[in-house]
Structure prediction request, 184 residues.
Amino acid sequence: MKIKIQDIEVNCEIFHRKVKYARLEIKNGTLNIIMPHGIKDYVGLINKHEKWIYQRISHINRLKIESESRKLDYNRDDDSFRKMVLDYANKKSHQMGLKVNKVSLRKMKTRWGSCSSLGNISINTRLKYLPESLIKYVVHHEVCHLKIRKHDKHYWGLVSMEYPDYKKYENELSVYWFLVKDLD
Prediction:
């Protein structure tokens, strides 16, 4: 369904799950309302968080517009991408005195990468279409998770030792997401 938040039309889906409290999520520009079973008043939740919804959707719309000025690199093949990721993960982890257990490449629906508690790093295959600087940033980001699991101030301090302007990289990744999210 579609709802109107100020001057923006927002795609909205309602899910009833086994949760204690209702919550809002925005995934790929769609507002997901997760409600406990038996609770029907989603309108009150929307009204309570209208400002937040408007700010997030406006931000997403700006990123979509910004993505129109970016180009993807279709020249990088799978082997060279794999080699770049593995080489950089090994180099960064060695420099930081950390150990990567395994690096794998796979298509991910909602993230650029992940790092398990076992030291396994997964990188989204769609990253291969992005500039090399962003690929290296994502690998560095995941290697940092070998040392600090949460995105807290200590974690961002570690990331910023190599990327003091990490917020610029995070924003660029958000912009590029709109170009690659539907690629096969």
